[in-house]
Amino acid sequence: MDNLIVLIGIGFLIGAMGTLIGAGGGFILVPVLLLTHPALPPDIVTAVSMATVAANAASGSIAYARARRIDYRAGLLFAVFTIPGSIGGVLITPYIPRHLFDIIFSCLLIALAFFLFFNTSLPDENGVIPKYRRGWKFHKQTDSSGETYAYSYNQWRGIAISILVGFLSPLLGIGGGIIHVPALVKWLNFPVHIATATSHFILAIMSIVSVITHIRQGSYHDPYIIRMVIGLTIGVVIGAQLGAWLSHKIKGNVIVKSLAICLGLVGIRILIMAL
User: Which of 152, 124, 150 is nearest to 138 (CA)?
Assistant: First the structure.
């Protein structure tokens, strides 16, 4: 994984898959780094991942903005509440032993995989206006293809979820989308395609804050790490555009199922390695 072409290729795949499901790609990159660089401490693994996620999320958000699928009102609100946790997660990671980090990370992935795969009910995406509920915000928007989405969500529940995601994301280097997307879909009633786009937008803001914190911590001082970040970043920026384009072609259920399978396989592999 030290060759620049290989790094760009891996980054391209991460960017495409991460943007397709709104997860940023950190859930793919972290396992790759854990498997190929067993000597790297958790804080460096997460630093590399968050830098790559930031590039992926920024590139993917531009594509989703063109598709007009981002709910900016919810996205900005939730992003603000991820920031305190995103700083705290970066500061705590250096104190977690690598063995414990692997176990925590793998168990989280497996749990999310089961939840997504077996909980198949998804909110309506055909533009039917939901019933009014006290304390829920109503939103309706039409994307660039002419499809209209109408839904309502509980902003306080979203804020609570965002605080948790903000902490776990840089702590594990996963970007947070693998938690935010299912949370937006299952608990906040977002249509899948709006959830993936909005999650990416939130992730762009949150991951940039995490990268700035990592810079202040000195996580990128090694030229080898900088070279790795550059190669991966070039790949994800290109791959993110492909992922956003594919999101128009694939049904929401397929996206969620694909995410669940990927999470489960990777989680099992890392847990076996850790044990």
Answer: 152
pLDDT at 75: 93
Residue 111 falls in which region: left (phi positive, over 0), alpha (psi -120 to 50) or beta: alpha
Per the structure, the count of domains in the chain is 1
CB atoms within 10 A of CB 107: 14
CB neighbours of residue 44 within 10 Å: 21
pTM: 0.79
What value, to the nearest 5°, has the Cα angle with vertex 64 and ends 181 and 21?
30
With a cut of 70, list the residues of the chain below it in pLDDT.
Answer: 1, 21-24, 116, 119-135, 248, 250-253, 255-256
Mean pLDDT of the chain: 82
Q: Say how many CA atoms lie within 13 Å of 20 toward its Cβ.
A: 23
Q: What is the DSSP string of 4-45?
A: HHHHHHHHHHHHHHHHHTTSTTHHHHHHHHHHH-TTS-HHHH
Distances in Å between the alpha carbon of 171 and those of 93, 106, 110, 174?
A: 5, 13, 17, 8
Contact assessment for residue 77 and residue 155, using Cβ atoms and an 8 Å cutoff: yes
Structural domain harbouring 12: 4-274
